[in-house]
Structure formats: structure tokens, C-alpha cells
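# nightly structure sweep
# worker-07 picked up a monomer target from the shared queue
# config: single-sequence mode, recycle default, output format = C-alpha cells
# input follows
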Amino acid sequence: MKKIYALILGLGILAAFASSCSKSEFETKFYDPSKTTTVTCDKLMTGAFYVAIDQYVSYGYASYWRLYTWENYFARLAQTVGFTNDSGTVYFLQDGWANNRWENFYEMLMQYRRLQETYNNEDAESQAEDKIFLDLTEVYLYDQLSQVVDMFGPVPFEKAGYLGITGDLASSYASYDSDKDLYKMMIDRLGELYTEIGSIKSSITSVVQAKLTKQDFINGGDLDKWLRFTNSLRLRLAMRVATNGDLTSTGQAAVKDAAGKSLITTIENATVGKVGPESTGGMKFWEGYREGYGGDGLNSTASQAMIDAMMITGDEDPRLRVIYNPNEAGQFIGKSVKETKAAQEANDNLRSNNWTNRVYATLDSVTFIGNGLMENFVFSPAETYFILAEAYQRGYASGDAKAAFKNGVKYSVYQYYYWNMNSTPQGNMSTYRHYKADAVPSDASIEAYAEKVWNAYSDKVEAIMTQKWLHFGLTDAHQAWSDIRRTGYPALDHPTDAQAQVNPNVTQRVCYPLKEKNNNTANYNAAITSVGNDSATHVLFWAKEVK
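# output follows
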């Protein structure tokens, strides 16, 4: 992997450090730019896309580490995975996991700063050719920045990420930017970038296009896909702030604007990365599910809340059997927050091996646990349609909420069947029950099911958000949890974890990493003073309190 990584970048300049690091870390990890080979904007773009602490610790794509730590934690909060109640750690996030997420983002930001510097030092002719690499990297950066802001709140940004350029450790301890200011900036800039990329698309040269096709593993050099991703991301961020807080008017105006422009609307024009482990040549989940959710299957236990939502009409959701394997008796039973810990443990102890006497359903082995080539949807058409459905229902834009809702359900079904039917199972699948579909359900049957779901809810926003939550499931649980905090849907029970010594109640945000507090103390203190506290119970400006 490290060899492939070096070849992709064409240089050894990726610094494995964050916005704040100790002097010893700087001395061991900082790579003197004067000793690098030729630095070019196209390769720096690739470096920013692919930045990772190692092959297992990355958050820009669905690595094992992201799935098993970050997504699994938010899946417990969003209840898209089954877990043991009163375990003492239901709402507890290890500081090391938060720090990994923090550092990974700032490694990406540092790569972007180096790209900015390289571009700014070019002559006008070179800048004209390289502007596209700068713009696409900025778009992807905002995808990652927004995720960090959604979990932590205010973070260093405008003055952060320059250590690799200046070599000045003291100045690398950056001040924090308001999460409100960062959201306003991202929404505005994504609108501008949409225009810029569109202009470049109409006049791009064959030489630049060849570089782009070679170096862009996110969208394969397809600028139409980049336009759709840029505007879809803007739509997501605009909706995040449109319903609550100080940016509602900004968000609603941006939702209306973005809804009328090019968006991700099909599997074919979705943003699906195309780089990954050496043996696959593609941006895949790879070992993520097999290593993190395989084994005895405890970590792959189904969520009863998810199963209940998929049975809301009394009919079986067409996604049910490609998401979950039933228990030995053919039943779909998941762990529920309404069970006692003792009852859950008794059920777990009944199984004599992977399947015999198993009580709880688990993630489907073909779709998830054994799917060695599961592609990572950076942004899916189902998400687009659910955002549009909500926007139409709330009156933020003009359109048919019910039709958009049905499309959201349809493309969610398409995506899960796409994963299932294109699976190439890895490892010993004989120890798992599994289901591989022969065909995607017909559009007519999906539409009929979606119609029943729509009619099952008196509150149509609840219908939309519940289906969006189902779609995100485990793979994008951080997005599911952000939507629950924003809208209150689906309305889940979050009982106190009686065994917890830290965070006994549901988390509203992620606390800053201890390493950041210790290394960037003055700026950290200023940031928490501005928002009130650095508590897991602090509610971010765009969110509602979840209870």
C-alpha cells in the first residue's frame, strides 16, 4: 500500500501531522519541501484526496478504521446497529478515535495548503491549466470539513494547515473559526465553485483533461459528475442549517438555488471513488466489514429500530433481505434499547456457533460482511432525493415532495441491491448465512411500497427523514446522526447508560481531542469560551437537543 501511495503522489511530501503537534512530532514527521521531487498541482490534488495515516486509518473513504470506530459509534447513537444496553460505553467515544478523525482532516488540509502555495507561485499560463485541480480539491475538502464541524463545532481552518509550508511550529497553533462562519463560507464557496468548474468544463484542454482523468480517482476526471457532486454537497450543507439556528435564511435560499441546478440523481452519475487497495484497483470498503463486522457476528447484530421502520406498513421492505440475514428460525429480530442488558446477553449466549440457536439477525454476508469489493458512495442519488423531498415539503423549493420521496426510496433500494448483486464474496463464506439477489425489484413494486410508507405517516417530514435514516444505515451513520440532531426524526429512545462513568446520556457533539487541548491550549480555551463549554451535551447551533 505504501508503495502504491508513493507512486500515486509522485512525491513524498504528505506530512502525517495535524494543525497542532508537538515539537518532537514535527521533527520526526515534517518532510523538508526542499528535498522533494517536482511538485505538481494534479498530484497534490490526488494526495489531498487520498490522505491517510495508513491504509487502515482514513476518513475520506470507507476504510476499516472509519467503519469500525467512527461509523460504528454514530451508528449506536443513531441506532442503525444493534448494541448491548447499559454496557458503560453506549455513548462513550474514545479520545483516540476522536483524535484520529481530527488529525486525518488536518493532514488533508495541509496537503491542500501545499496545493494552494504551488498554484499561487505559478505563472498565469500554468494557473489557467491548474485551476481545475485546485477547485476540485477545495470541493472535496468541504465535504470533509463539514463532517468535522458537524461533530465538533468550531474548528481551526482559515489559519490552519500551514506548518508544512512555513516550518514555524509556533504559528501552526491556529485559532478556531466559528462553525456558523464556516458553514456560511462553505455554502457560498460551493456556489462559486459550481460556476467556476462549469466554466472550466466548457473550455478544458485535452492535456489538462488527460491529467485529470489519470489523477482524479473520485470521479474519474468526469467534470459533469464533479458539478453534480459540488451542487449536491451544497444542497446537503444548506439543508443542515436551513431548519434551526442563525443561518436559516441563508440555508433556505441556498436550498432553493441548488435544487434548480445539476444534482446527483442516478447511480451512474453518483460520486463513487475509484481507488483503494492494490489488489482491487478501486476505492472499496475492502476489509472493512469482514474485519470489523465478521467473526462471531456480535458487531454485526441487527438494529430492532431499523427492522421496525422497514416493517412499518406490515409488508417487508424490499431492502430487508439484502441488509440483514434472519436468525436460524427465519425471523428478523434485532437488539433494542427496550431490552435489558441481561436479556441481550442471554440471547447472545444461546448461539453455539455463528448461526445455530442465534436469536438476532445480522448484517447480510453477501452485501456486507463478505463483500470484498464494496464500492464507497461519497454521495448517493437517494440522499439527493430525500433532501429534495424535505425541501419541497417544507416549502424551501418548488416541487413534488411525494414524488421525490418515492425516488429516494427507489434509489436506496437500487444502491443496496447494487452492493448485493455486484458482491464478490471474500473469505470463508460457508460459516455465514447469506442472500444474493437475482434481480432488483421492479420499479412498480418499489413505487407501490413507497406509496404505502408515505401513507403510513401523518407527518410527511417524519416519513422522509426516517427513510433517509434507513438509507444511511451503518455506512454513513454520521450523516444519520446529524439529521436526527437537526430534525428529531426518527424519534428514538435514548435511555441512560446506567453503567457509564463518562457520558451516561446521549451525545450531542464530540469533545475536542485531549491532544488538541494540550498543544493548542490558548486557542482551544478561546473557542470553548465562545460557545460555552466543551461538553458532549453541548448542542450545536443548527441542531436540536436529542433526548
